[in-house]
Write a structure and sequence with these properties.
By secondary structure, this protein is an all-alpha fold. It has 22 helices and 2 strands. The N and C termini lie far apart (90 Å). The relative contact order is 0.10. Bound molecules: manganese (II) ion (MN) (2 copies).
């Protein structure tokens, strides 16, 4: 049997478009599943993936990737590696598993939708591989924590978290429903693949993989590197989709979809990756600060890519995004550490004297702003007054990002002229937002968001009983044994800065 070169048959097998005759185009591609934005079918048929792969090649590569991840797991699971990991690093990986494992599996729905409703056969072909990718990511990121269960019972939050009403899970579900489970195939290609995956997943999957190697967590490093190679491939579905829209005069639509999802992605990555990189990763193994990673991968590489398409940075870039990148995750960290019983990991305060020096160096002004709050907390811990460091109420939560409103009063990098929370009344209901871009996303499409109840809305509506912290923890499915505690049992608060002693 003659073996044809791939180049001789690839286009024939990938490009199986045909003119529909039994149904109309609208019946086959209803707008809610695939918004063509008025671009003609023939134009969509020019869709050309930048990365070519065939099914036999795909299966061969993926089988090899899985084999190596499971081989590392088989060795590490019998070792003491996990027990010897730094408590802060354990916080980072438990947070990761709960926030990422099932949403990856759910991203398979996004890929499946593109695999059926993508507007060209070549696109549907690539999305089929993406669907298999995301299924694999869901599986390996629930399997690996499953093998940790006898050492860390809360590793089951890898599967449990998205099925609860824990506040971070509500925020993540709201984001992912907006981005892909309730999104059409064309918008998904722009928002999930071009914005979220091309821009942000590098932070969590390459940045954290590098930190994991330093920490000695070979398993986590191998796991998430394996995933990122798939993401780098299927994220490329956005580029040809954007090109067709822009070539057909739809630049404004692409820009709006990008501006919308970039902001929502920023908020969640500040919460997840910001805390892990700047507070949870052991100081001696931090390669870059979160802000430095953002500067390299977002402010430079990601923006360069979008400029190449003739797009602009989002309208809020300077005033809001470049402003928040200095301080938002520091504010989130103070909040998460204080409300630590409401998360499934043990937050590491990460503010020993040496760590504070590092924070001041990377974020000049940190001591005069966030350090002041930690001074008070440190005094309370040293006085043995732990209850004073714990919350008694729920914070105000943004009705878009669903993360607590965090704009530390007086902090020199915070918003000076638009104090949060922003109040917005719409059709008889009052909404609160943490920032102008969160409010903007609501106002450009209120029908999409107006029915949602955030955790505090649910509290006020009487869904949470009894209406106190205990009732809230039960509502979030957090048992006393699962509730987060300080990762090092407050060791950081008892360290003193080295005294400068001058020689006699
Ligand atoms: Mn994935
Ligand atoms: Mn993906």
């Amino acid at each position: 049997m003659p073996q044809l070169a791939r180049s001789e048959w690839y286009d024939l097998t990938r490009d199986m478009n045909w003119t529909l005759s039994y149904v109309t185009e609208d019946q086959a591609f209803p707008e809610e599943m695939s918004n063509g934005f008025g671009v003609s079918t023939e134009q969509w048929w020019t869709w050309d993936e930048p990365y070519k792969i065939t099914y036999p090649e795909y299966v061969h590569i993926q089988a090899g990737k899985d084999a190596s991840v499971y081989a590392v797991n088989a060795v590490v699971a019998r070792s003491k590696v996990y027990e010897q990991l730094d408590p802060g690093w354990k916080a980072a990986i438990l947070a990761h598993y709960g926030a990422v494992a099932v949403p990856e599996y759910v991203a398979g729905i996004a890929e499946s939708r593109m695999a059926r409703f993508g507007r060209a056969a070549a696109w549907r072909n690539m999305a089929t591989y993406g669907m298999l990718d995301e299924t694999r990511h869901g599986q390996i990121q629930t399997y690996i924590p499953y093998t940790l269960l006898h050492k860390e019972p809360r590793a089951d939050w890898a599967h449990k978290a998205p099925h609860t009403n824990e506040w971070g899970a509500i925020a993540a579900r709201s984001l992912f429903d907006d981005m892909f489970t309730a999104n059409d195939a064309v918008s998904t290609a722009i928002q999930l693949t071009s914005t979220f995956e091309t821009g942000f997943t590098n932070l969590q999957f390459l940045g954290m993989a590098a930190d994991a190697m330093g920490v000695g967590d070979l398993e986590f490093s191998a796991l998430i590197s394996s995933i990122q190679t798939d993401e780098a491939r299927h994220a490329q579905q956005g580029e040809p989709t954007m090109k067709i829209l822009i070539r057909n005069g739809k630049r404004e639509i692409v820009q709006k979809l990008l501006d919308h999802m970039f902001w929502r992605s920023w908020k969640v990555f500040a919460l997840l990756t910001g805390l892990s990189m700047d507070y949870y990763t052991p100081l001696e193994h931090r390669r870059h600060s979160f802000k430095e990673f953002m500067a390299e991968w977002i402010n430079k590489q990601f923006v360069d890519q979008f400029r190449d398409f003739g797009l602009e940075t989002p309208w809020y870039w300077n005033e809001h995004y470049l402003n928040e990148v200095n301080w938002l995750h520091h504010a989130y960290h103070l909040g998460v550490w204080t409300w630590r019983p409401t998360v499934w990991w043990n937050p590491d305060a990460g503010v020993s004297p040496q760590e504070r020096d590092w924070l001041e160096e990377k974020y000049p002004g940190w001591n005069d702003s966030f350090g002041k709050y930690w001074d008070v907390i440190t005094d309370n811990v040293r006085a043995g007054d732990i209850p004073l460091t714990l919350p008694e109420t729920l914070p105000m939560v943004c009705n878009m990002c669903h993360i607590p409103v965090c704009t530390p009063a007086g902090f020199n990098a915070g918003y000076l002229d638009s104090p949060a929370p922003l109040i917005h009344d719409y059709q008889g209901r009052r909404y609160t937002f943490c920032s102008e871009p969160c409010k903007w996303i609501f106002t450009i499409n209120p029908a999409r968001f107006q029915g949602h109840l955030g955790i505090v809305d649910r509290f006020l509506a009487g869904h949470i009983q009894p209406p106190d912290l205990g009732g809230a923890l039960a509502y979030m499915s957090i048992s006393p044994a699962e509730a987060g505690q300080d990762a090092t049992n407050y060791a950081w608060a008892h360290e003193h800065a080295p005294l400068l002693v001058s020689a006699p």
